[in-house]
Structure formats: structure tokens, C-alpha cells
Amino acid sequence: MASQEILERLNTIFKQIFDNELIEINETTQADDLEDWDSLNHLQIVVAIEKHYGIRFTAAQVDKWTRVGDIITDIQQKLEQKQTA
Amino acid sequence: MPNTSPQIILQAIAAQNPKHAAQLQQSLHHLGALYQQQATAFFSKYESYLLKAGLTIDFGVNQYLEMVDHMREERMEFIRSGKYSNSSFEEVNKQVYSNPQIMNMHMHGLVLAQFMWFDQYQRFLFFSENLLRYGSAAVNYLEVGGGHGLYINEAIKQLQQLDAFDLVDISQSSIELATGILSSNKVNYYHQDIFDMDDSSSQYDFITIGEVIEHLESPADMLKKISRLLSFNGVCYLTTPVNAPMIDHIYLFNNVQEIRALINDCGLTILEEKVAIADNKSAEYANKYRTPVMYAAFLSKTHA
Question: Which of B20, B69, B281 lies closest to A40 in CB terms?
């Protein structure tokens, strides 16, 4: 799945979790760039991603994410694994 | 005696997990001199105990970080399902209580959490600020599930009219940890099930039961037992969390109202209570995202 498509979905998820329609993320966005992106919200975002794509992450995997680009990469990998499974 | 400040603990955590240390620092940095004093006093006792056992504070930090990893997995599962991953004592006994490595990790991790987590410190502060007011006339003291000994340690410090304090715990390893950290000859340790205590002949003026009832299939049975063990004018200090998935939590309180209702249903009256939300989130946020909430209360028997 193309990065841009995933990024658009992530934007929707972030807007919903943070309850803020003005949020716009890109691949370089990090937690420090968004005031509400803390450890509690991080897990909410992860589970929202899981539910949308039908994939699953471990806490150890998601703790390695430092920017949105990392999330996109891991989503693409999970989707590829799902397709080949 | 070592001088183990929370800053030393934070630095040790940061060496392994800088992201987590930064989050802790953010929620703790505004706490003042009293926090520093209380945290340093207890952490110093803990490090002293570790040194006697041939260990260093890094051991405690490692156990704490492992506990945090487990907790995050539990939290993800909770967000996915809306339920705790275990719902029976049998499941938890198999996975946690019968596994010395997991028990050790969990017990030692919780020692540091008492002052490293904002909401945990709030419940201790609530206890320490009000204990004398509710306990100064007590002629005896009971702690149920004393764990690391932090609360009974504070009771020994403040309730100076008492020469003896009773601690009942179903876990031998918890008793060993508390014995090691406290190093007090004022504590009578009872390795037994509280339900085996005869409440017709022993009653207490002050009972502390912190972070216990969420580990039980029937918190109501425990609270009714506590009510029977409480003397006529006795006071109980109770804490339990809402939406707080941990490896050995069984009973899920979905909100504070459920806790209050249970307390009242079990013949107890709330004298004073405190609610602290994890990471200092708003009540609206906590409700929407089922964020962990700490509940603490001083209770008395309900009289007709």
C-alpha cells in the first residue's frame, strides 16, 4: 500500500484521537511536534491503526517508533506479511 | 544508609529508556521538597535492602522497566478488548503468583512506581497528610497486603502511640520484601489469608488495604470482611484503581462511581476520598479513553 494512502489514514486517526481537526502530520512528524502525543495517546493511536488495517503490533514494536514515517513503514510491512500469509 | 533520590532513579531509568524517563520527569518535575524528602527516604531504605542482598539499585530499575513493558502490553490489550486479560485468580496464580521471576519483577517494580508515578504518589500523599487525623486515637493497626511496606512504614512514623503494627499478606515473598525494606521490630507479620482472621475477637481501629481488591474475584467479600474487622469507630484506608490493566488485576472497575457503590453496599461509609488520573489527564479524557484512575478513600463502618 502506498505511503501517501497510509499517511492520509493516519491523519484521520490522529485527528480523531486528539479530537483536533487542525492536526496535519507528515512522515517527519515526531511526538515532540504534537502536544498531546504522549504515551497514553500513543497506544490509542496504535490500536486504532490495528483495528483499521486488521494487523497487530507488540508494545516493543510501537515503542521503537520515533516519527510517523516509522509507523508507515511498519504498517506496510505488516500488510505485506498479511498478504503473503 | 544510602541517599537515593528520585533523580538518581530517573537517571538510571534514562540510561535504559530515555523516552520513559522523560515522561516520568514531565509528571514529577513540579513536585516539591516534601516529595523529594519522602521519595528519598523510602528509596534509600530500598537501596539499603538491596545492598544487603548483594544487589544494586540497578536491579530494582531493571525490574521496574520490565514491569512497565508488561504493563504496556496489558494496556494495549485493554484498549483492544475493554477487559483485563485475566479474570480469575486461577489464571493469575498460574501466570504470576506461581512464577518467582514474574513475582519478583512485579514486586520490585512496584516499589519504584510508588514515587515514580504521579498518581501513585498522590495516593501516598493523601494517606500521609490525613493519617494522623484519622488514626491518632487508634489502639491497633492492621495492614492487608502490605506489599513493599511503604504505608505501614508511614504509619509507624506517624502513629507513635502504637508499639505494634500487624501486617497480613497471602504472599510470602511480599512479606520477605517488606521485612527487608522496613527493618522494624514493631511489625508483626502474618503470612495468612485475611479471611482466616477471626473478626469476632479481633477488631482494629485502623486498617489499610491498598491496591488489593482489584486482585480479587470478589472485592465485595473482602470489603465485607474489612467491615467486620473494623472496630465501631475504626477507620479504613482503601485504594484501588479504575481502568488499570496489570498482569495480576482481575476485577475491573470501570469508573469511580462503581467503587463508591461497592463501598456503600458493603456496610462502609466514605469519609474522605481522592481521585488522581494517570498523567494528570482531565476527567473528560479519562472517561473517553479509559485512562487509569487512582481512587483512595478513608472509610468508616456505616451505622444505622
Answer: B281
